[in-house]
Structures are given as C-alpha cells and as structure tokens.
Amino acid sequence: MKLTLKIWKQQDAHSKGKFVTYSLDSISPNCSFLEMLDILNEQLIRKNEEPVAFDHDCREGICGTCSLYINGRPHGPDDAITTCQLHMRKFKDGDTIIIEPWRAKPFPVVKDLIVDRAAFDKIIQEGGYISVNTGGAAEANQILVSKVNAELSMDAAACIGCGACVAACKNASAMLFVSAKVSHFALLPQGKIEAKDRVKKMVAMMDQLGFGNCTNTYACEAECPKLISRSNIARMNREFICAKVS
Amino acid sequence: MADLNAKIPSGPLTGKWTQYKNHQNLVNPANKRKLDVIIVGTGLAGASAAASLGEMGFNVKIFCYQDSPRRAHSIAAQGGINAAKNYPNDGDNIYRLFYDTIKGGDYRSRESNVYRLAEVSNNIIDQCVAQGVPFAREYGGSLENRSFGGAQVSRTFFARGQTGQQLLLGAYSALSRQLKMGTVKLFNRHEMLELVIVDGKARGIIARDLVTGKLERHFGHAVVIATGGYGNVFYLSTNAMGSNVSACWQVFKKGAWFANPCFTQIHPTCIPVHGDYQSKLTLMSESLRNDGRIWVPKNKEDAEKHRKGLIKAKDIREEDRDYYLERRYPAYGNLVPRDVASRAAKERCDAGYGVGSTGLAVFLDFEESIKRLGRHVIEERYGNLFQMYEKIVDENPYENPMMIYPAVHYTMGGIWVDYELMTTIPGLYALGEANYSDHGANRLGASALMQGLADGYFVLPYTIQNYLSGEIRIPRMSTDKNEFVEAENTVRERINKLMSVKGTKSVDHFHKELGKIMWEFVGMGRNEAGLKKAIELIRALRTEFWKDVRITGGIEELNPELEKASRVADFLEMGELLALDALNRNESCGGHFREEYQTNEGECLRNDQDFMYVAAWEFLKEGEFKLNKEPLKYEEIEVKQRIYK
C-alpha cells in the first residue's frame, strides 16, 4: 500500500505544533497501524531525521497507553479496538491518513502524539478504591455477589483508562471514564460505606481538572475501545444525586 | 561479601513461615515514618508492595517508565490466578498447590519459598475480593473456578480473560489511596538507570525523568526491584514493548547475582508470526485449552495443501486429524503444562505437519466444544479472546479453527533472592517476575499473578521489616554524598557514550538481530554447538552496536530512541549470560530443552545428580561471569520424573 501521512509534530508542551507530511510505500495490509509508524520511524532514522514520538506499550489492546486520533476518530476507523489493534487492511491503497494527539485541555501534549493523562490518575486518587488495608480481609466467599451484578461490574471495570472518551467528546468530558469506575464499585456489595463520598469527590476532581460536562451526544460510547456503556453515566448521576441529597 | 545463604527458617516445611513471622524483628510505628523505601516497577508486585508498605507507615517512592502505574504489563495477563481454596470440593489444598508448582517447575525451585506461596495464596483472593475485584461468580453468588494446565483440580480464579487487568487495577487502587494520603510518592515516566550502594548496602537509585531527560538522585533505606522479566531479549515476545531487563542488569553489575537465566517460558498458544515488520506476539490465553483441541493433519499432503492455501481446516476429515497432545499425554491431554505443549507443537511442525502460510502453526479447534456446549457458552467464556484473534488475523475463529504457535512469554530466571526476597546486596530486594524464586524451570499457568501479589502483599511487608529494624539509626542521607554523585556520573557517561556513537543503524535493527540469534539458538531447542555459536554472534553484534548504532534526538528531552538504546545495550549483554547458563546446564528440564538430553520419546531428560541446583551467576566484568551454586534439597516431596501421560 502507498500512503500519505499528515502527522502532528510538536517539540514539547510549550512549543507550537504543526502537521508534517510523510509518504510511505509498500506497506502490507496485515501490518498493524503502529507497525506502520515503526516503519516510518525506521526510514526517518535512516535519513537522520527525528522519528515521530507516540505512546504505546502492550500492543495488545489492554494497557491503554496508545492514543492516536486517526482521521478524526480516537483509535481510528475500526470499532471496539485500540490503535495498537488496528490493522492497515482497514485503509485503502493511496489513502491520506491524518494523525493527531488526543485534544483536550486536561491532556496537554508532551511531545508530538504523546499527551499527559495524569489527570485520570488524580481522579482515581480521590476515591476510585475501596479503603481496605492489606491483611485481615474476610474469607472471600462470605461476600456473595449476584452473577448479573458481577458481570455488569466487570463490564464497567474493563475500562483501560486510555482517554478516547475525552478525546471524542466535544466538551472533553471525562464522564464515561469516571462513571465506569463509580459503576464498577456501585454494582458490588463491597465498599458501600464510602460510596457517597467516592462519587462526590471523584466528580469534584473531574470538574476541578477542567473536564467538560456531558451533553448526551454519546460520542464517548461510540469510540470506546472496550464498549463501556453510557448507562454508566446515568448510574453515576443517580449515585451523585443520591449522595448530594442524603 | 555475597554468599548463598538462603536463610530458610528451621523446622518442618509447613511451619516455616509461621516460625519466621514469630521470630522476625519488627519496626515500631514512630520509626516507620523515618524509613524510606524505593520501589521500582508498578506491576502486581511493585504496586501491591508500595500500597502495603505505605499503609504500614513507611515512606515509599515508586517509579515506573509508563505514564501511569496502571499500565504495567501485569495488566495483560489473561487467564487467572491460582489459590488453594478448594471451593469446587475437588480435593485441593495448600499441599497440592505447593506440590503441583514444584512438579510443574521440574524440581528446580526452592521448597520453602513455594510452600509459603501456596500458603498465602488464599489470602490473596480474600484481599482482592475485599478490594472489589470483579471475579467471575456462580449463580449462587460464590466465586467461580476453572482448570488450568498442570493441575487436575480447578483452582483458578478469573475475571473473564482480563484477570491481570482486574488484579492490577486492584493493586493500583490501593496504591492510589496511599498516593492521596501521601505515604507513597509516584515518579511516573521515570526509568531507573543505576543502583547506589553506600557502605555495602543498597541506598538509592539514579533515575532519568523520561520527559525532561534530566537525571535524578533518590535515597532509600532499602531498594526493591519489581521490574518484571527479560523476555524481550528475544525481541518478539508477548511482553510489552517497553518491558526490559535494565534494572535487573544494573543491580547484577553492582553485585546482585542472577539466577537460572536460561529458564525461559515459551507459551504454546500465541498467534503465529506473520511478517518481518512484526513488533509483538499476541498471546491467546491458556484457558482456551480447556475447551479447544489442538491438532495437525495426520498426512503431510494435507498440511502441504493447507500451507499453499488450497484447503481449509474444515476440509480435513476427522480421521485425518492428529490430536497429538491427547495422543501423547492421555492423562492431561490438551492441558499439559506449557513447556510440554510448546515442544510438542515444535516437534510436529519440524516434522513437516505444520499449517498456515509459514508452516509454523497448529490448529486450536473449538468445533467440538461449540457442538457440545453451544456457541453462546464459548462466547461467554472466551468472547474477548475470539474477538482479539479475529481483529489480528482477519479470520472468524467460531468458523475456522485458530492457528497458534509458541512464543516467548515469561522468564522464570531472575535476580537470586533468599527466603526474605533479599538479593546478595544487603537492603536490595527483588519481587515478582524479576526474581527467580518460585517457578523453577517452568511456571504453571495462573501462577505469575499469584506470585506477584504474594510477594508484594504478604511476603515483603514482613521480611523487609526484619532488615529495616536494623536501619532505624541511619538518618536519611543527603544525595550530595559521593556515592550518589559517582553513580550519576556513571549514568551520564554511559548516555553520552551511546549518543556519541552516531552510527548508521537504528536501535530496532540491533534488537531484531539479537532476537533472531536468541530464537534460533537459545529458543525452544538448544544444543552445545548452537549455544556456543550464539555467544559468538551476540558478542559480535554487541561490538557492532557500540560502533554503529544511530540515536536521533537529544539527551535532555523526551527521546524514545535513547530509552530503547539503553535497554537494548543491556539485552546485548544479558543474552550472552542466558546462552552461557543454557550451555552450562547439561540437562533438559522445564522450559530448558537441550537436544542432547532427551528420552527416546523426546521428553526432557533431567540430570538430578549434577544439576539439582540454582545457578547463581556473579558479574566479574563484561562478558565474564562466575557460577555459584545453591543446592536444592527436597525434604518434603519425592523427586520424580515429570510425567503427564
């Protein structure tokens, strides 16, 4: 395949960025998207030019590190996968591909296509846990969880924290991410004692960090590589209102 | 000086850990606040240790190269975590889990450590459930179990095919709670580049801030390495792209001994290699072997036709299929341990029965299970794995059998540790995959998660106190001390040396070349001539690397090429040690298969007379290593040939 790539290049957080055009030839359709970028970088290094910096690690769709905005869609044109699972067979010979970083105020660009997502860690630190110390936990089977709730909880807990939901949202809202964590716990009997505190604190931090509000376009759900459902947002709102009024 | 006293508590095996806890020294709460611990790595072992030590009141600094601690590669573990709960009432207990782990490791691990691992396994499940890990449940609400390779009981707990993710998120949440409380401080996008030793004890690290490129000095009364395994020495593996041996290699060069580096695990069920540009191999969970049947064609002509794309698997009649695992190992069938399954696949492919375009693949077939259980059951059990397969290979595994081939997955070898998980450097600990202790020559499925969390939640928090209780009179040291300055200078010189090569070939080029050498000569089948050749080739490649590597960009900035170069430089030294260890071990056991040592049926031929020891290597200088031996004594169990027939 022959491709034209328009890639966002930006030296660091303080510099101004711009699109740079590269062309690539003889790319196999079985190549993954990130392997295509590897090939580009190999060629740039051969020419003694600086390669394109992008975040990636596990390359199997679970670590949540990769984060490219490809032709206007987080994680590219395929559904329910991360960029590292995207293959070039989803593109056509001769295509022009535009590659950008996540664009959201709380995710500043670090370099080229790499952004800083520490804001997500900060939200979790506000209450995305059950306050239990190591040791002294009760026998596991003393806590029974209905299969239905365990499955729903797992659906929410499957979030990989990649930030595609924020990148997809016109308001840069983090509601899907935060609600997935809130739902994961809200559906389980464990940690109920601190549930109200949890949702209030996490939402407050989300607002404080500059994430926008939800206006129900559900772009987040459409682009989520793990198919996290928007119903989690409804559940979080319910939890939040209950916590506020009681 | 370093010695090999494993500090195993006296008394009967079943009481050793209790005995240890009864007599170890503790640190009082007021003193804990005055003690600093550095932890490198935020996977299951590192994150759980940091959270636990933070809760206890120590000051912890934790480092990871990733942008968030939640991204450590423990997250990718799919299948499950073992524990001796015996919920299914199928005869399991602590002793059996211990026994299966020792046997699975082909009698090359330390009895006392493994028994302790089995002992604390049940606490891990309790802990994780309390944290809200959404394990699979039965309709009555109790925890569900499934079976895994190398065991005849169902003792594996799981959260769909994402057990590692859920356990890591549990540990990450406990860590996040401590980060909020301020007992733990996080240094993300930081890489450890040197260990600092003061008066013979580990006292700190030099780390590079990967965003600014600046070097930093950090003090700790103790240092904990939890940086995972070295599978990426093979370039293509199931490890994350950033997984590396560097922290382990630095401490090795500073005096920690490296144990059994040749014990590497090749996982039988991975998606086969498909092209030169490939960067990574994807694992298909071992749990698939519960319902999938592995086969190749009985006739070479059918295999040949499949390779040429003339026929599909479905076109091969039932009677023309060779379910070779069921044929060779009727007792365990498709659930034989990983090393056995991997070698059997290689044997069939080498003999000309391999399928797929490269001939390096076998079928993993769900047709029978789908008929027996219905598609919806298979979908519920393995849906995400099937989806992952389809995205990568572009073929529907519900309709055509999967094609799989073995790939490098896990490393049993690692930094030598004693019963307390302390290395040969006082005050330096190694946890999880980074140490060698529990899996011998082969790890059983669902045991890595168990070991990582056992080390971090339930072992280190006890044993480190025994050491730190002797350090309460040592005030925090200034990092202006000579030892810190010198360590930083060593790192700076090394980075400058790398940058000044200004050669013509990329870092990836050298990494791929190293991978080819390792896979060909130090992979699934090893022999004396090949290993000697590998050592020669690695040395030559290393020389070429230092003459011809090209690293673009600068030092004091975010520079992924420089990060990779520094890691590959270490792999180029480590690969040699791996081959040397394989050459030294004149026997076949577990994941280490020396072609000269096999039975008439092609099974491993162990040599307990001469090799029932842990090979602990000591660094002398580049390319020169000294072998030390820790003899393995089995008091509780009878050492047998490992038979799964």
Describe the overall structure.
The complex is a heterodimer of chains A (246) and B (645). Chain A is built from 8 helices and 7 strands, in the order ββαβββββααααααα. By secondary structure, chain A is an alpha+beta fold. In chain A, helix 2 packs antiparallel against helix 6 (195-208), helix 5 (175-186) runs antiparallel to helix 6 and helix 6 packs across helix 8 (231-245). Chain A is elongated and about 60 Å long. In chain B, a hairpin with a 2-residue loop joins strand 7 and strand 8. Chain B has 645 residues and is α+β, with helices and mostly antiparallel strands. The model of chain B has no long low-confidence stretch (mean pLDDT 96). The longest helix of chain B is centred in the C-terminal third of the chain and has 25 residues, at 560-584. Among the domains of chain B are: 266-408, Succinate dehydrogenase/fumarate reductase flavoprotein, catalytic domain (Flavocytochrome C3, Chain A, domain 1); 491-610, Fumarate reductase/succinate dehydrogenase flavoprotein-like, C-terminal domain (Methane Monooxygenase Hydroxylase, Chain G, domain 1, Up-down Bundle), CATH 1.20.58. Chain B has a 5-stranded parallel beta sheet. In chain B, strands 12-16-15-13-14 form a 5-stranded antiparallel beta sheet. In chain B, 61% of the residues are buried. Chains A and B meet through helix 1, helix 2 and helix 3 of A and helix 3, helix 5, helix 6, helix 12 and helix 13 of B.
Structural class of chain B: alpha+beta
> Can you write the helix and strand succession of chain A as a string?
EEHEEEEEHHHHHHH
Number of strands of chain A: 7
Taken from the alpha-carbon principal axes, the silhouette of chain B is: globular
Which second-level CATH architecture of the domain at 266-408 in chain B applies? Alpha-Beta Complex
**Name of the CATH superfamily of the domain at 266-408 in chain B:** Succinate dehydrogenase/fumarate reductase flavoprotein, catalytic domain
| Span of the ends, CA to CA of chain A | 60 Å
Helix content of chain B: 25-40%
Say how many strands of chain B there are: 20
* Largest sheet properties of chain A: 5 strands, mixed
CATH top level label of the domain at 266-408 in chain B = Alpha Beta
The major beta sheet of chain B can be summarized as: 5 strands, parallel
CATH architectural name of the largest domain in chain A: Orthogonal Bundle
Q: Tally the structural domains of chain A.
A: 2
Strand content of chain A: 5-15%
Q: Are there runs of chain A of 5+ residues with pLDDT below 50, and where?
A: none
Shape of chain A: elongated
The stretches of 5 or more residues of chain B where confidence is low (pLDDT under 50) are none
